[in-house]
Amino acid sequence: MSANPVLFVEYPKCTTCKKAKKWLDEHGVAYTDRHIVEDNPSADELATWQKASGLAVRRFFNTSGILYREMGVKAKLDAGMSDEEAFALLATNGMLVKRPLVIGDDFVLVGFREAAWETHLLG
Q1: Residue of 44, 43, 42, 33 lying closest to 11 (CA atoms)
Q2: Are 87 and 50 in contact (CB under 8 A)?
Q3: If you average pLDDT over every residue of the chain, what do you get?
Q4: Residues facing residue 86 across a β-bridge
Q5: Distances, alpha carbon 60 to alpha carbons 4, 17, 100, in Å
Q6: 1 domain-assigned
Q7: Confidence (pTM)
Q8: Please, is 85 exposed, middle or buried when counting C-beta atoms within 10 Å of its C-beta (0-12, 13-18, 19+)?
Q9: Which residues is 61 bridged to in the sheet?
Q10: How many domains does the chain have?
């Protein structure tokens, strides 16, 4: 665990993000807050975070979002969208990105899974 604050990327109206932020506050985890729509991650940031997370690119998509369904993203991914195309698409709108994201010095957490957060953030 690092003494540096983690980057907490969220959509403030998202109930999961609210729950995650409350968890951070209750556990005394220092973080820098970033609004995912007002300051959408760039394709380069997303590529770096995806590599650090060890997850597949498709895990960075907000699959329960309206925009994801309206744009037919699952079909595009299933048809063989490249990672570069996926990062470019994610960078167009923060509502496409799974949230919350927590970015530390040597890890990236996607979504709020308390056990993983405890492991990475509480040491």
Answers
A1: 33
A2: yes
A3: 95
A4: none
A5: 24, 15, 10
A6: no
A7: 0.94
A8: middle
A9: 97
A10: 1
- Hey, CA dihedral for 21, 118, 4, 11, is it positive or negative? negative
Express each pLDDT in 57-78 by its tens digit.
999 999 999 999 999 999 999 9
**Residue 18 within any structural domain of the chain:** yes
CB 11 within 8 A of CB 35: yes
**What is the tally of helices (H) and strands (E) in the chain?**
6, 4
Whether the CB-CB separation of 89 and 61 falls below 8 Å is answered with no
Write down the pLDDT at residue 123.
Answer: 81
CATH code assigned at 103: 3.40.30.10
Residue range 22-36, pLDDT digits in tens: 999 999 999 999 999
